[in-house]
Amino acid sequence: MSQKNHKAEDDRDIKDRVEEILDDAIEEIEEIDGDEVDSEEINDEDLSQEELLKEDLQKEKDKFLRLFAEFENYKRRTSKERIELFKTANQEVMTAMLPVMDDFDRAMNELRKSDDENLIKGVELIHNKFKETLRSKGLERMQIEEGADFDAEVHEAITQIPAPSEDLKGKIIDVVEPGYKLGERIIRYPKVVTGR
């Protein structure tokens, strides 16, 4: 017997089985219809069971939606915390490097007073490379101008002196030590002198 014939017989057997199952189901339904059972009682029971099932389903949907929302909030919060952690992970190292940066700035100011141009250029190259490396890691120097308004949340006043003019009262007169930010976070507040 060829494979086609064998396959055709299998298809017929499957069709016959499906037809038998459908016939049996139809007979069962006809028997139930023929029985002397009060259909209103069945409907009331089915409705109450159906309503109970719908309520249970609705409760489960609510639980699922709440759980899904909590999970989404958790994912969003942890990813935000992770990004913040990556941005500020090297905060200790950056804070330790700030005095070195200050010393380097002071050394550059003193070197500029000398006459050796080659020495100034060489040290200036190293100084710029150091600053650019720290900047690429997220360190940013806070720009504060003399005469700007003093803000206690951003500046650290170390002393007050008499203002040279009336318009400098309560304003920044001098910046003693620059401030730095790492990302959006201030890691060192600028130390300033204010006028009174």
Automatic annotation (TrEMBL):
Keyword DNA-binding: no
Presence of the UniProt keyword Coiled coil in the record: yes
Protein name in the entry: Protein GrpE
Family, as annotated: Belongs to the GrpE family.
Subunit structure: Homodimer.
Function: Participates actively in the response to hyperosmotic and heat shock by preventing the aggregation of stress-denatured proteins, in association with DnaK and GrpE. It is the nucleotide exchange factor for DnaK and may function as a thermosensor. Unfolded proteins bind initially to DnaJ; upon interaction with the DnaJ-bound protein, DnaK hydrolyzes its bound ATP, resulting in the formation of a stable complex. GrpE releases ADP from DnaK; ATP binding to DnaK triggers the release of the substrate protein, thus completing the reaction cycle.
UniProt gene name: grpE
Species annotation: Christiangramia antarctica
Pfam families to which the protein is assigned, alphabetical: GrpE
